[in-house]
Design brief:
Pfam families: Fer4, FrhB_FdhB_C, FrhB_FdhB_N. The chain is of the alpha+beta class. It has a domain of 54 residues. It contains 18 helices and 15 strands. It is globular. The protein has an 8-stranded mixed β-sheet with strand order 7-6-8-9-13-14-5-15, with helices on both faces. The chain has a 3-stranded antiparallel β-sheet with strand order 10-11-12, with helices on one face.
């Protein structure tokens, strides 16, 4: 007998690899392993004998009867002063700024690292769970539990690499204490679902820090970018968001270190953007996510991708706060000059993630429409299926989806990602890339009008 999460989620290619199912399985029969695409999936170490269904109830892409709206309403709906937007979910306040101390080593303004450290030093939590490098070439990053601010700093920066939470969630269940967890929207949704069924998780995970997300990447994404950067040896370490003082914040670099100590760098505009924006090496489950702003998190951190801030090479953060305790902590630290933040209109926060919102709202609705026509199995979403996209947007959506499939199948076809495979993959994508260039050319008049309207909206927001 197979575990329900295997038959209902994994076999339909809807698993995001968070690991909550493996951590909670009362029989202990699930383990997280790499699949053929370089993504994490649960596998059975022995047959399921009870079919209790707990694995499905904690899965963010299973039809559990819950979604981000229902979960967040239970968590934040009664918070005094709380407001709601369809794009962001609930929010108490929104901020823009940075931590001077943490900014140089962080992906943007360093606010996520500052917050995790402050939660420890102020005694709000005893442990922090975040992603950090491992030094293992077969598993470059993992979730780890830290007890000191110094250890937390090792996790500063972004990690565009698969990680799973089964080990750290088991530690939460075994070791008493108050924990803060940082994670992407789908991972935090899984934690919230698990908390509804497990008292220990409910009592011990007391703070959740979310990160906005457009998509996850497989381990082959890192190998592909390393190949573009000219790396020929085994990658021993990666820094995904290096900052250069002669470049704006939105042209960061990836830095790769090999076993012999050599380093190679590649900037965002030198090929990373092409692979990222066209969803190469992106898991299929990401096509069914409608949460941009980690709506189940007490506080959400993101880059300030706005014209006012993206040119600053130091990087700037945006925050959405939903918890009263987190709001008080941020305001107190701001008053004492520990951080440099200011309030910002929530509309500008939404605008900073405009392209991601388009993918997770409008494009998702069209993908669901297509799936209905094909009678494909897909999870129930808050977004309704719709064919209401312009012809150019439909063309763009289909082309990007085709490239996403090609990039995953390229890995499967070759058994693993080949170190000299970058040129071969780009060759396979040639006609799709030409189509996107034509789409951009034909869309130029519409983009110009939209840009003008955005300038007017920004002016009104600042008043």
């Amino acid at each position: 007998m197979k575990s329900p999460v295997i038959t209902s989620v994994v076999e339909h290619d809807l698993c995001i690899g968070c690991g909550l199912c493996a951590a909670l399985c009362p029989q202990g029969i699930l383990a997280m392993q790499w699949n053929c695409y370089g993504e994490y999936n649960p596998v059975e170490t022995s047959p399921c004998t009870t079919e209790c269904g707990l694995c499905l109830k904690a899965c963010p892409f299973a039809d559990s009867g819950e979604n981000e709206d229902t979960i967040a309403k239970r968590l934040y709906g009664a918070v005094p002063g709380i407001r709601h937007r369809s794009e962001t979910g609930y929010y108490l306040a929104s901020y823009v700024g940075y931590s001077e101390r943490h900014r140089p080593t962080s992906a943007s303004g360093g606010m996520a690292t500052w917050l995790l450290e402050t939660l420890l030093t102020e005694g709000v939590v005893d442990h922090v769970i975040c992603v950090s490098p491992t030094g293992d070439p077969e598993r470059l990053f993992s979730f780890q539990v830290f007890d000191t601010p110094e250890d937390v700093r090792t996790g500063a920066g972004s990690a565009y690499y698969p990680v799973e939470m089964s080990e750290v969630i088991r530690q939460v269940l075994e070791v008493p204490g108050r924990y803060a967890v940082t994670g992407l929207p789908c991972f935090l949704k899984a934690i919230r679902l698990a908390q509804q069924r497990n008292k220990k998780l409910r009592e011990r995970i007391v703070v959740t820090v979310g990160l906005t997300c457009g998509q996850l990447k497989s381990r082959q994404f890192t190998e592909y970018i390393a190949d573009l950067a000219g790396v020929r040896g085994e990658v021993a370490g990666v820094r995904y968001r290096g900052k250069s003082q002669d470049q704006p914040a939105n042209n960061f670099y990836f830095s790769f270190t090999t076993a012999d100590g050599k380093e190679r760098r590649l900037f965002w505009n030198e090929g990373i953007a092409e692979a990222w924006r066209n969803r190469w090496f992106t898991p299929e489950a990401c096509n069914y996510c409608d949460d941009v702003f980690a709506e189940c998190a007490d506080v959400t951190c993101m880059d300030a991708w706005l014209p006012d801030f993206s040119g600053d090479p130091g990087g700037t953060s945006l925050l959405i706060v939903r918890s009263g305790e987190m709001l008080n902590l941020i305001e107190e630290c701001c008053a004492f000059g520990k951080i440099s933040v200011a309030s910002i209109n929530i509309s500008r926060v939404v605008r900073s993630q405009r392209s991601v919102i388009t993918i997770k709202k409008s494009h998702l609705a069209y993908r669901l429409y297509q799936d209905e026509l094909l009678r494909k199995v897909f999870p129930k979403k808050r977004i309704r299926s719709s064919s209401n996209l312009s012809e150019l947007e439909r063309w763009k959506c289909k082309t990007i989806c085709a490239m996403q499939r090609q990039s995953r199948e390229f890995t499967l076809k070759n058994g693993c990602y080949l170190k000299d495979g970058a040129s071969s993959l780009k060759g396979e994508m040639y006609w799709d890339l030409m189509q996107l260039r034509l789409i951009r050319f034909l869309s130029f008049p519409f983009r110009a009008v939209r840009y003008g309207l955005e300038l007017v909206a920004q002016t009104l927001d600042r008043r």
